[in-house]
């Protein structure tokens, strides 16, 4: 990833420190919304430069872990179950499992992200690799969604925090809805949005009939991007990596990629929305309908195991 590009990143380069200069506060509003904390004192309020090496957020699988994963895969296949029925009960990882539970706690209660590295995708069929991914994931979160920054802004621009917490943001995805970008719910700062849902993009053209953002809202989004650039962490993904991100707390993006001619030069990413029934955060009312729809166990799930054609975006039935 190139640090000069716009946009929030969790993205193993540490981005250069940037000065974040804010314009004067807006005249018509002042102070934080009711209930919001004056500052964010949390492990989630990190800056990319505080991570001195990728060992701070990458868990590397050892040979014993890989043997354990292979054994769990073979035992699960003997059950004759579909891959989406994998669980901690039928995909036993006695040594690796506790390490993954530590990662789970860090995602929900710590810095909000982590990465599991060391799987070799070339060793497995597509189906077996997917089962392994889901077997590891079930130790992080036991629910699978249906497929189809921070403290310095609180201190420097409380007026923009107020703007972000208003209910007049016109989201176009997954359906037209006006709701806040930023929530303070159950004593947590929660942010859940994508720029495409608010401004449109080449792949998701915003219908002309929908209301546009006003200048104050655009200023607030630009402030988020400046803070994200100043605090970003860039992660260089390797084949077989599994990224886990708390999407209610950490902003993230992917860098563009051009496939090469050989198999090893092609990128295939599969995104899954996960939630743990015990560790999962309480959801603000404005987001509950989307969460219920996403994690409804009665709805069909589709796993895109093979790469889809360019321009195919099955995951965009939900905005984030």
Automatic annotation (TrEMBL):
State whether keyword Membrane applies.
no
Q: Name one GO molecular function term.
A: dioxygenase activity
The UniProt keywords, alphabetically, are: Dioxygenase, Oxidoreductase
List each copy of the TauD/TfdA-like domain by range: 170-272
Q: Does the keyword Oxidoreductase apply?
A: yes
InterPro entries according to UniProt: TauD-like_sf, TauD/TfdA-like
| Protein name per Swiss-Prot or TrEMBL | Taurine catabolism dioxygenase TauD/TfdA
The scientific name of the source species is: Metarhizium anisopliae (strain ARSEF 549)
What's the source species' lineage? Eukaryota, Fungi, Dikarya, Ascomycota, Pezizomycotina
